[in-house]
Amino acid sequence: MPVSASSHLLVVDKLSKSFGSVSVLDELSLTVDPGEVVCVIGPSGGGKSTLLRCVNHLERPSGGLVFLDGELMGYEKIRGKLVEMKSRALAKQRRKIGMVFQHFNLLSNRTALENIVEGPVQVLGVSVASAREHARELLEQVGLAHLEASYPSQLSGGQQQRVAIARALAMRPRLIMFDEPTSALDPELVGGVLAIMRQLAADGMTMLVVTHEIAFARSVANRVAFVADGRVVEIGPPESVIGAPQHERTRKFLNELL
Asked: Residue 196, SS3?
């Protein structure tokens, strides 16, 4: 384990991922500290979403390691060799990481409340009564208490995404990862979701956010990582990476957006 693994909540150490002959991540390294918000920006196809999927082992990395809370993700050491974890042990690790996807991934045959209750009851073993009480508190937090009995098909995209955020919070994760959480939303719905994320950041939630919302990254992130061609090209405070980028690749990307 690298020395740094004990001093950060999340350590991504020289992570690589290839699909066939196509390299998507190229020895990418990144850290996230407790209570920190790290926003990942960069061109499409640069490896941002694959990074998140490798962190929680939805994709098996081709090389490199990921540590959460000092614990190696996805592997265990048996007789001196790293062996991929069985699905049950991996599921236990994933409890510490909440994931909010682009397209919500809500269960269509469950109400908003039931979508939030499902994980704590089925995975954490929380009682239904306790899970429902917490779910109602979370729906209140995201401004949807009045829609607890609504099904996803009855909710707008922005409302569905807020339910998805509440669902992630219901697992009481150490880290929440967001994969372009506003990219599938109509422009008028984006602000409501970003407001929830801003409040989570203000409350001290540790967040790793892949986003194209540069204004959000500038105002909320502790650090911004510009990722292209599977590597972290530049990382630092938003006033540096967004306000005064050092690399030509970063400048070109931002000039096309701003």
From this structure: helix
* Residue burial 90-121, b: 16+ Cβ < 10 Å; e: rest: beebbebbbbbbbebebeeeebbbbbbbbbbb
Count of alpha carbons within 13 angstroms of residue 242, beta-carbon side:
23
Length of the chain: 258
Task: State whether residue 221 is helix, strand or coil.
Answer: coil
In the chain, domain spans = 103-172
pTM for the full predicted model: 0.94
CA separation for the pair 169, 99 (Å, rounded) = 9
Q: Residue 9 has what pLDDT?
A: 97
CA 99 to CA 69: how far, in whole Å? 17
Long-range contact set of residues 198-205: C-beta below 8 Å, sequence gap at least 24:
199/141, 200/165, 200/169, 200/176, 201/37, 204/35, 205/35, 205/176
DSSP annotation of 21 reads: T
Q: What is the pLDDT of residue 80?
A: 87
**Amino acid at the residue 51:** L
Q: How far is CA 188 from the centre of its chain?
A: 23
| Mean pLDDT of each 10-residue bin along the chain, 258 residues long | 64 97 97 97 96 95 95 91 91 94 94 97 96 98 97 97 97 97 92 96 97 96 98 98 97 91
**How far lies 98's CA from each of 64, 82, 150, 228, in Å?**
22, 25, 23, 24
Q: pLDDT at position 3, please?
A: 40
Taking alpha carbons only, the member of 40, 36, 61 closest to residue 49 is 40
